Every structure is written in structure tokens, then in C-alpha cells.
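Table S2 (continued). Query chain:
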Amino acid sequence: MQSDRRDGVRVAVTGLGLVTPLGLDRATSWAALLAGRHGAGPITRFDASAYRTRFACEVKDFDPETFIERKKVKECDRFIQFALAAAQMAWQDAGLGASLGPVARERMGCIIGSGMGGLETIERQYEVLKARGPSKLSPYFVPSTIANLAAGQVAMRLGLRGINYCTMSACASGAHAIGEGFRLIARGLQDVMVVGGAEASITQLGIGGFNAMLALSTRNDDPAGASRPFDAGRDGFVMGEGAGVLVLESYERAVARGATVYAELVGYGATDDAHHLTQPAPEGEGAQRAMAQCLAEAGIDPEVVGHVNAHATSTPVGDVQEAQGLAAIFGAHLPAVAVAATKSMTGHLLGAAGGVEAAFTVLSLHTQTVPPTANLTAPDPACALSLSTEARPVSMRYALSNSFGFGGTNVSLLFARCER
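Corresponding output:
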């Protein structure tokens, strides 16, 4: 076994915040995930009766006023509301309080990714435009729609005066945000980064657009069983929504203040297929390079990785290509790698998926428990992986989280169990 490479500043994960179709916080979402519960059901956010797909994994019972003053809710599209909620929970979890001075906050930044931005606000304001004319458009239309305002609103709420921007790389957006935050700390440019992804695209255009691409499952009579990664009966992904946010900080700083270190982030790989608009490269070639980069940055061999949270969206082609990529990277060690496909329960949160699944991967390391993969009734022989329909204890030092997106963009994040 090779040891972690420590060329730069070590990066710790000290806070986790989740808003998912499984729950409105980290504890509830994680407990539901381990229990194999799903978040799918009929769409309630609009009348979907005319759509090919009439179900999704919605966030239930979310009250933005729990996290945002009533007068400010109108400034924020639903995806921004999710980001604010998850970020505040992560910040509180990290134990970073109001006593921080302005100089310290200048070395604290925020990167929140989103694949679609404020789609719901765009739809609603277009209806206003058609019905009542341009003079009736909301002055908050643009600020509540543009993707970078999730990070902007979080920075204002938490007083983060360092770097602030949005990664917008389809379904890899949240993972890119985490990776870029990692690099900034590792290079000594920031001390603390609030990073992750947020998405709220269960809208008329969101569902209709992915239906037009034939990307969504159409199991309208069985929403609970519709998201089935690596299963022979999969027929497309199930749309989800929510946010996943991590607090990253220098390991030395975290230890000095007595923070809980859930895990260390030790590797980040990012590549592009340069192959196709929506389909991955054959045998997951681009994903292979992202995973290889990630492992190389950490300075470890594939044989010491114990768990992979797969991108695994439940599409016929994508799941096979990822499985082939995993086989190429891990070789004879692959049967010993506990693979999980958590989208089988959360659905696909698009730009938020990388944030949510990175948080799940960290929790897997922290608790030494790998979540189940739901709806795996007939495993696809073309996806020969170590999967389980039940949560399982796994002794592991390293875990990998994969996120891939349209345009051929690929991200892999490698986390290590904290061993002081």
C-alpha cells in the first residue's frame, strides 16, 4: 500500500448539509438511505398529466422560511433556497460561528454548482410576461435565476468574503465545485470553502425537455421501482432535486480548533470525453482518466479503495460504460470494491448530485457503512460489480465518488478516512 501524497495543505471535511428527496437534513437523509427508502412519487409541483413521465423524486415539506426571512424568499428560486438551507446546516455542523473576524472571512469562500439554475422562476416569469406584459416582471427575476446566486446568497448569509462563483457543468457541477474548493485550500489560497451543488428542475420544461430526449424512466405505474441502476430492466433516470453542501478546511486549522473531521479529501480528477453531446465515451474512457487522475493525486493504488459511490443514473448506456470504466481501473480488485448507486433512492439531482453523493461517500467512510442499491432485482450481466440491496459494513480507508455530465465532463473525488 502506498501512503497519501501530502505535497500541499491537507483538506478536511468538517461540515455536511443535505436537503434531499429522502429528508430535510443530513441525519434523516442518511437514515432513509441506509434503510433503502425511496423518494419517488407522483409530481405535485405542476400538472404532469400530459407528460410521458408523471413522477419524480421531489423534496417534501420544505419550508424555506425555516432558513430564510420571509421577505427574502422572493429573491430566491427554489434551487437557491435549497442551497441556503444545506449550507447553513453544513456551517453549523462544522461549528463555525459568528465570532469569526473580517480578516479570517477573507480566506473563506463558496462554490456552489448548478446544472440548470432557476428554471422554475424562468417559467413563472415568462407566464407573467405573456399575461401581463414586461412592466410586471419581478425585479428579482434575474437575481433569482442566474446560477451563481446560490453561491452569492450563501456567501452573504455566512459572511464569506473569499472566492465566490458557480460551476455549471451539467451533472458534474456539484462535484466540480467540491474539487475546485479542494484545490484552493490545498494550494494555500483559502482556509475554508463551502462547496457543493443545488438543483430544482422538477418543472414543466425540466421534465418535458428530458422526456423529449427519452432520458427519463416512464414507469408511471411504479415510481418506487423506476430508478434501477445496473439492473437489466432500467429504462432511464428519475428526476430528483435538492442540495448537498460540504465545509472543507485545512486539516491543521480543523484540528487546532477541535473540529470533527468526517474525512479528508485527498484526490480530484476532472476530464472530458470529447466524444458526444450526451453519450459517454466507449468503455467510460474519460471516466477512467478522471479516476486515474484522482488516485494519482492522492498517491495511492486502486487496490486500497474500498468503496465507490457510482454516478449510475439508471440509463441503459451510461451504467454499462461506467461499469466498464470501473473494471478497467480496478481490474482484479473490482470484486472487493463495494459499489453503491444511491440514485436508486434519491433519483438524479443533476447539478446537485455530486454534492449529495460526496456527502454520502463521506458518511460511508465515517460510519464504515455502504448504502444499498435499491431495485436491483435482475443485475445486468454487463455491469459485473459488487452491489448489495442491503446496507453493509465495510472496513475501508478510501472511497471514491463519481459524477459525469452531458458534454462528456467527468469528475472523481477521493476521500480518506481520518486517521490522526
